[in-house]
Write a structure and sequence with these properties.
This protein has about 325 residues and is α+β, with helices and mostly antiparallel strands. The chain has 10 helices and 16 strands. The strands form 5 sheets. It has a 4-stranded antiparallel sheet with strand order 3-6-1-16, covered by helices on one side. It has a 4-stranded antiparallel sheet with strand order 4-5-2-15, with no helix packed on it. Residues about 1-20 and about 325-330 have low confidence and may be disordered.
């Protein structure tokens, strides 16, 4: 059956092929899914292949069911982790997220007149809506800002931003064969080939230096006339963990291109928006920084970081009762 499937689907996709076939495939033919369903009756790897094709075709509920079947019979820890991510990425996301910006004055002197900026979180229709519930920042143009008059020596201030995120898994397929550029057009295969030229360092516990890679892809795409923006957001590594992540988007359509993930999971390489990848903001307004801090004192040393975590609704409700002044009015 697998040999027959490879022959019948050689024009676009076969379960046994390398993952790069998924990057260049613009559409999922219905008969390809039917053949994959036949192969999946044999069990094993074919069940995963069918789930992947269903997810690529935008049939996320069916994909989740197949991933769950594969999860119940899998034993390899890495495969189990991947399947868990694919299951959660095929479901609707409706959650609260706290972004915590932490600034510590590492100096022996007090710091004064500190301006903190982060990008403005923005929804990504038609599949995602972001609502700002509360926080220490106020929106100003494409940024959110907070002013700190005084930060005493050896102390830390935490600036929270609470977001309500609802996101459906979504795919841009069928993908167009060509994309307009300043000098003509670039093909889908051309974009895929461009991604393959980006070197991806080997890492054990993280997606890699995603921000640098996103800017590198932006530069190389610009050489072909294709405009890309750099997008920042969150990557769910399992149901409870969030990592900051960066990738590219074609600005006119919002279609994502992720050079880092495409090397290990090409399902998310081009035009795919599963709900385990959460876009938050456009990095074009902050030069790639999640947090920017400005202050006049040259002798002050500030440690700056940002963390992201899922929030318990009861905890947030209690927090808003205690600190109603944190409410943001749009």
């Amino acid at each position: 059956m697998n040999i027959l499937l490879a022959v019948l689907l050689s024009y676009g996709y076969s379960p046994g092929d390398s993952s790069w076939n998924l990057v260049t495939l613009g559409n999922i033919p219905e008969r390809a899914i039917l053949f994959a369903e036949l192969a999946a009756k044999e069990g094993g790897r074919s069940t995963v292949d069918l789930a992947t094709m269903l997810e690529m075709a935008g049939r996320f509920a069916e994909a989740e069911h197949c991933y769950s079947l594969a999860f119940n019979s899998a034993t390899d820890p890495l495969l189990l982790e991947w399947l868990e991510n694919r299951i959660s990425g095929s479901r609707t996301l409706d959650t609260l997220v706290i972004l915590s910006t932490m600034i510590t004055n590492m100096s022996d002197e007090d710091a004064m007149d500190i301006l903190v900026e982060i990008p403005l979180p923005e929804s990504h229709p038609p599949y995602q809506r972001i609502e700002q519930l509360a926080g220490a920042f106020m929106a100003e143009g494409n940024l959110m800002k907070q002013h700190i008059d005084l930060l005493p020596s050896r102390t830390t201030v935490v600036l929270p931003l609470i977001l309500h995120i609802t996101q459906q898994p979504y795919t841009f397929r069928p993908l167009p064969a060509n994309y307009p550029t300043l000098s003509g057009s670039v093909s889908l295969e051309g974009i895929s080939s461009l991604i393959r030229t980006i070197p991806i360092p080997e890492t054990e516990n993280a997606p890699g230096p995603c921000l640098e890679i996103a800017y590198l892809l932006k530069e190389r795409a610009a050489d072909t006339g294709l405009e890309l923006h750099v997008t920042g957001g969150l990557l769910r590594t399992n149901t409870d963990s969030l990592l900051f992540h960066a990738w590219n988007q074609i600005p006119e359509t919002g279609m994502p291109i992720d050079a880092v993930l495409s090397h290990t999971d090409s399902l998310r390489g081009i035009g795919h928006c599963s709900s385990d990848l959460i876009p938050l903001w456009n990095f074009e307004f902050t030069d790639g920084h999640e947090v920017s801090v400005f202050y006049p004192q040259q002798n002050i040393n500030l440690d700056i970081s940002m963390q992201a975590s899922f929030a318990d609704p009861d905890f947030i409700a209690g927090l808003l009762k205690l600190f109603p002044m944190c409410l943001i009015t749009n």
